[in-house]
Amino acid sequence: MIINHPLLGPCDAQEFTYLGDARLIERPDGMADGAAAAFFDYAYLRENPAGEHRELWFHEQGDRSWLVVTRNTLTHDIISVELARDVARRQGRSA
Amino acid sequence: MNRLSTGGQIDRAKTFRFTFDGVPYDGHPGDTLASALLANGVRLMGRSFKYHRPRGVLTAGSEEPNALVQLRNGGRQEPNTRATTAELFNGLTAVSQNAWPSLKFDALAINDRLSNFLTAGFYYKTFMWPAAFWEKLYEPIIRRAAGLGSITTEPDPDSYDKGFLHCDLLIIGAGPAGLAAALTAGRAGARVILADEDFRMGGRLNAETHALGEQSGADWAAAIVAELASMPNIRLLTRTTILGAFDHGIYGAVERVADHLPEPAPGKPRQILWRIYSKAAVLCAGAIERPIAFANNDRPGIMMAGALRTYVNRWAVTPAQTVAVFTNNDDGHRTARDLLARGLDVAAIIDTRADAPACDGAQVMAGAQVIDSAGRLGLKSVTVRQADGREHQLKLGALGMSGGWNPNVALSSHQRGRPQWNDEIAAFLPGADLPQGMQVAGAAAGRFSTQAALASGADAAMQVLSDMGKTGHAPDLPMAEDGKTRITPFWHVGGTKARAWLDFQNDVTVKDVTLAHQEGFRSVEHLKRYTTLGMATDQGKTANMGGLAVMAELTGQSIAQTGTTMFRPPYTPVAMGALAGRSVGRDFRPFRLTPSHKWAVEQGATFVEVGMWLRAQWFPQPGESDWRQSVDREVRATRSSVGVCDVTTLGKIDVQGRDAAAFLNRIYCNGFAKLAVGRVRYGLMLREDGIAMDDGTAARLADDHFVVTTTTANAVAVFRHMEFARQCLWPDMDVQLISTTEAWAQFAVAGPNSRALLQKIVDPEFDLSNDGFPFMACGEITVCGGCPARLFRISFSGELAFEIAVPTRYGDALIRRLMAAGHEFGVTPYGTEALGVMRIEKGHAAGNELNGQTTALNLGMGRMVSDKKDSIGAVLSRREGLQDEKGLRLVGFMPRNPQDRVIAGAHLLETGAELRAANDLGYVTSACYSPTLNSYIAIGFLKAGDARLGDVLRAASPLTGHDTEVTVVSPHFIDPEGERLRA
Question: Which ranges form a coiled coil (chain B) (predicted)?
Answer without folding.
Answer: none
